[in-house]
Amino acid sequence: MDVPQLADLPHLGQVVPALLGSLGAPGEVSALALPDASSACVLLIDGLGWQLLAEHAADAPVLAELAKRPLRVGFPSTTAAGVAAIGTGLASGEHGMVGYTFEMPGIGVLNALRWRSHTDGSDLRGALPPREVQPLPTTFERAAAAGIDAVVVSSAEFADTALTRATQSGARYAGVHALGDLAARTLDVLSSRSFCYAYHSELDLLGHLYGPGSTAWRMQLRHVDRLVESIVDGLPPGALLAVVADHGMVTVDEKLDLDDTPDLLAGVRAFGGEVRARHVYTEPGAAADVLAAWRTVLGDRAWVLPRDEAIERGWFGHPVSDRVRPRIGDVVAAATGTFGLVRELAEAVESSLIGQHGSLTEAEQLVPLALAQG
Known about the structure:
Oligomer: single chain
Shape: globular
Pfam family, one: Phosphodiest
Distance between the termini: 45 Å
CATH architecture of the largest domain: 3-Layer(aba) Sandwich
InterPro entries: Alkaline_phosphatase_core_sf, Phosphodiest/P_Trfase
Strand content: 15-25%
GO molecular function, one term: hydrolase activity
């Protein structure tokens, strides 16, 4: 089964450089060709796929009207990679957040959202300083260097996380608590020459718990649409708003437990990734046998490639830095259809979720680019 061909679409990482370019920041260019602006904001709605928005346009009429074209998010289609794309303007092969979990050589498998060991839950902030894991200049640092006030408007609970430090250094953090102050703080920031990144997480949460398109998910989408409408209605003259997402989502209805499938364990020393996108780290000399076994067992339920071929095909963008390459599995598996590779004991919570993402399908890869200007 062939991977969907999406390379001609703009990448999520191009959005912030385009917005900074619209504010006159030198050297910030993008194929998006956005209009000049007095201030600019990218609002990321976690989990809002292009296909999901199209299917449920009646629940989000404002967003559906503003969303004129899709973006692709790259591999893996997951929050750590998407947030880092916003925070660096780059794909995962350069910023290095190559999964929900991934191996850091010499340390072990890192959970990038919690910054803890995926094996035993221990805190890794000391062993893995955030700006060593992601050392590239952030888009917020670039904005500040250009004399543009850079602000993050997001949940107060994320203000001092390691992922925030890795991907949002250089910004002032405005912690908020609900949709009301998210909208109010965003509009306050946009009242002067500034760049704002605003983030809403709960649509993704309800998609995971109840499934994308479920009644609970649709009710939350209605609230998201009201949030967008409130910001659009209050945009100051010349202010530019871009609403995007970090990934779409699918309902998983077929699962295979990795830890209960001996043929998929032979020669494997560690797993990374998540249910729809797996990094497989192999024992020395075992990569070829592991690749063959995974292809045999999974068949057309997943695209299974060796690391070098996944890189060559551009799964992680071009280029992939030498710093990032060892974080990618010796074998990489991306689920097709509505299939999931779970670990019901080792990853009990993640394996139980109804909605999942991470892979290369259009449902997960395509997200909206919705634009409005005051």
